[in-house]
Amino acid sequence: MKEIKDKLLIEKYSDSISSYVHLDNVSLQMFEFEKGELMIQPSFHFHSIYFLVKGSVNVYSIQADGRQFVTGVKKEIPILGDIEFVTKKKPHLFVEALENVVVLSIDTLRYEKELNEDVLFLHSVIHSCVDIIQSVQHEQNCMSLEEKVIAYMKYQCDDHILRRIEKTSEILHCSRRQLQRVLHELMEKDILTKLSKGVYCFKK
């Protein structure tokens, strides 16, 4: 990542995001990422909003068995960091540059108050989050039950621990027997371990 300090270039690209955020009360930075560079990754706090103004990125997670689960490919002008801005939590997904990428960035720690009072920006965040949810739902429709269980444990279970078999089977739209079969198979694959009756976690 390198910062671009060309004011004319920043001004040129800022026009393209004026329908997403009011720019009167915030300052913008511009960054460039090389192809293959990780722009956002889990376990690292992310305190920015990125507006993708050039290039495209791959948004994905890594399954417990090491496979890549792609949740979407974003092209110009989508927002990155919107979910982290809302939840104040670390990212759950990787964002990787598929080519040389240029973003306009707003520091969310510095401008949190201004962004929370910007109705235009908040509407943009809502639309962006809905797009993410729809994309994930579409991908989940194509996922096996095993993949759904892993994704559910990684992203919706506290401490990545699955509890309450009956409730989980309702959420994943499967029978209790089907869920128990998958959990048993994941233990056989050395992916999960059983902590107690009906309680499972990823094996360390």
From TrEMBL:
Q: What is this protein called?
A: Crp/Fnr family transcriptional regulator
Q: Where is the Cyclic nucleotide-binding domain?
A: 23-115
Tell me which Pfam families the record gives: cNMP_binding (PF00027)
